[in-house]
Design brief:
Layout: H1 3-20, H2 29-47, H3 50-57, E1 60-85, E2 88-115, H4 118-126, E3 130-131, E4 136-140, H5 149-155, E5 158-182
Parallel strand pairs: 4-5
Antiparallel strand pairs: 1-2, 2-5, 3-5
Length: 184
């Protein structure tokens, strides 16, 4: 093989390999995530109108329109969503969790993390991977009726609203969720 044809072969192979990678450039991944976020927020606001008040008090929110969770002894979950500040998407994130314990089943759900303080939002955005911890307050699940923002907002820098659960997960587990910035 001549030197020119080797270069052409290597260049072609690299171009093909790069094109096969889902690097997000020129893809519509962000548009899909934003469309899912918009649809989920509309559904949540219609079903739980009090979440609008919570949204208005928050300085930012991480919207995860669909998290899929499954487990049989060991389990895990994954989903992708958008961080919105003043109603505008500023970043995209994935949520991944691992769990272990007595568990069996699968379910899907949606959730929103409302950042109630500038400091909480800044901490989240600065971190290379943020794990939900003790400063997270859960405000709602599908068994609850109303969202009360007065006491929840006063006490917690981050409020989680979880809804739309479908499926069945049974057991007792230890779990941690990590949120990581992604390029869709």
């Amino acid at each position: 093989m001549s030197r020119l044809s080797r270069r052409l072969f290597v260049t072609g192979a690299l171009a093909t390999t790069t094109a096969a990678c889902g690097n997000g450039i020129g893809s519509n991944g962000s548009a899909k995530i934003d469309a899912r976020v918009d649809a989920m927020l509309n559904q949540m606001h219609n079903r739980y109108p009090a979440t609008l008040e919570l949204e208005n008090k928050a300085v930012g929110m991480l919207v995860m329109p669909l998290i899929t969770k499954a487990g049989f002894g060991l389990g895990g979950s994954y989903g992708r969503g958008a961080l919105r500040v003043n109603g505008v998407t500023v970043d995209y994130y994935s949520a991944a969790a691992a769990s272990f314990g007595l568990q069996i089943g699968a379910q899907q759900f949606s959730h929103v993390l409302y950042f109630m303080t500038d400091e909480a939002l800044a901490d989240f955005r600065r971190s290379s991977g943020w794990a939900a911890g003790a400063d997270l307050e859960y405000a709602l699940n599908d068994n609850g009726g109303n969202v009360s923002t007065e006491t929840t907002v006063a006490l917690a820098p981050v409020v989680a609203v979880i809804f739309g659960q479908a499926g069945l997960m049974v057991g007792a587990t230890l779990e941690g969720t990590k949120y990581t910035r992604i390029l869709p």
